[in-house]
Amino acid sequence: MTEKQLSELLQDMTVAEKAEQLVQLNGDFYGGEDFLTGPAAAFHLTDNKAYRLGSILGSDGAARLTKLQDEFIKEQPHHIPAMFMADVIHGYKTAFPVPIALGASFDPELVRETAETAAKEASAAGIHVTFSPMADLARDSRWGRCMESFGEDPCLNSKMTAAMVRGFQGENCGDKGRVASCFKHFAAYGAVQSGRDYNVAELSERTLFEDYLLAYEAAVNAGAEMAMTAFNTLDRIPCTISRKLLRDILRDKMGFEGVLISDYNAIGETVIHGAAEDSRDAAEKAINSGVDIDMMSDCYLNNLEELVKSGEVSESLLDEAVMRVLKLKNKLGLFENPYKDASEEEEKQLHCCREHMELSRKAAAECSVLLKNNGILPLRAKKIAVIGSLCESRDIVGSWAIFADNSKTVTLRAALEEVCSDIEFQFIPSDTPDEKAIAAAKSAEAVILALGEDQLGTGESRSRTDISLPEGQKRLFEEISAVNPNTVVLLFGGRPLAIPEIAEKAAAVMELWLPGTAGCLGAADILSGKASPSGRLSMSFPYCSGQLPLSYSAFNTGRPKDNGVKEFIPFLSNYMDAPNIPLYPFGFGLSYTSFEYSPIALDRDILTADGGITASVRVKNTGDRAGKEVVQLYIRDVKGSVVRPLRELKAFKKISLAPGEEQTVSFEITEKMLRFYDINMDHTAEKGSFILYIGPDSTTENRTEFRLV
Ligand code: GLC
Known about the structure:
The protein has 21 helices and 27 strands. It has 709 residues and is an alpha/beta fold. The strands form 6 sheets. An 8-stranded parallel β-sheet has the order 9-6-5-4-3-2-1-10. Helix 6 packs antiparallel against helix 16, helix 12 (279-289) crosses helix 13 and helix 16 (354-367) packs across helix 21. The termini are far apart.
């Protein structure tokens, strides 16, 4: 449709129709046996009103959605098609590694490719919009949703978020095989106090702008068609009814022109927060704050029409919201083809097809992080005991992989048997050091212990006060490693876990995260040496929960302690019972080879506002195996009108090197890279000295200096 036709359609709609376009319910309201007595009754829904609403969430399948669309078009007075939205977070039928793992790949192109593949599968199933990427910065691994984030760093988070948006949408979300991307959760949901899900978030405005908003802005700049509000409060105002956040920052400052949807019943929950009198008051506050679609609450459904007819909400404000929804339907091409790409035939061809499973396998290999290796990996042992219930679990694809075909999930056991067929394995899927496990460990040349969290132990509403391993797993490790020192720990999970005892005693430790449908094959490729580990930590691994929240991008304080020193030093900023530094730092990861960095070369050491500095290092593979290295560039602003972090990631490049090969890696340093929110909250760079680091992780001391004049 043309803009003119859309305007004419809008003008021809009644207030009731307009309000209905701004309501989204889930599949329970459509055709379930308790249609009118169950959820529908709770929402005072008349029999067919549900089929006049603007969109639904959580349903999928070409056949089901085609049939549903026919009913929407028939029932809606102007035959406006519905939008079908779903949580396709990191894959649809073929699950890819969870986002915290994708962040650890440090490979935006890989992330884009996984999103593009997910979009092909989802759009064939009739889905038009995905509620992904989650762009929330996460620095507290007590929060279960670290699993869905790209980690602790704004630069990494921004690049991965933008890559995922581009993967889902391509050039135009209406193209075949594409879906519209809805980034979330705006804003700073990852900063919930104490890591407790849905809790308040208390951030200074400067920290909000400096660290937490960057990735959302990257999503806007990548052209994301939708945004979702966050459950938490910011500055003691529920994000979902914060005009300052949603209108002043998201729309006016960031320039977002897409559709803004609430999170699940988040408008209704503003009453429970104590920031709205009742659902009518909540509806009025939300529409005035710029929330276009009310997901799964009855606030807009039962109040918006009356609010407009009474004049308390202007019809022009209603029209503004409805026009954004109609424009998105138009971009998706739904007025011309309301079924978009829905095709039962294509579903059969695409879902978990060989190509997609290969990508899931490859992605898991790129996301796995080798944290320790005394040389036992790649495996040379020919008789190995594999112990731990996770070795046969299928619950390793992530709690949001709700559409994944779990019958296709490759377990660690199946992967090892397929890839390492020359090894004699004994599998003991037990988490207790029983006689059988101990005997197997004693008689084996080496042991693989599958430990950590499955998908039920991490994700939404899975916050923990203690991120160490369960006592049983700790005991299993102690007793198995005591009888066989050649113990390799494979760690599953969606967040950094506190594993100091394992780090000390295991022969090797590899983080697999929740690797996805074919992810264990990727892990087996690494264990066998068919692939080299190249993941780098997207979040710091703390020694203990007490260090949280934790980030490498910390501040010096007025009483800094030398971070290399672990013991307590009175009257310095440290703990009596734990080091300041993490067990494993952000950006860290081992390879099967070794890399050497030359000192940093600068083409000049004075930077001007309109100039640039080229910083280069030569990186050499000094080992005897090919490998990939993530070359990371950090900058420290030595003095500012406000305190500045000790270092901030500004760029990274993942390179492949054959044994003995050397490559020069260059980065362009610009004044824009140095900008921050100064004492007046102006986003500007301040003249002075800067330290530049280029190395393998956030602790590198390969450094040089330059000045901004
Ligand atoms: C959930 C999540 C959100 C998701 C939405 C729809 O509660 O917070 O990330 O997209 O509901 O399922």
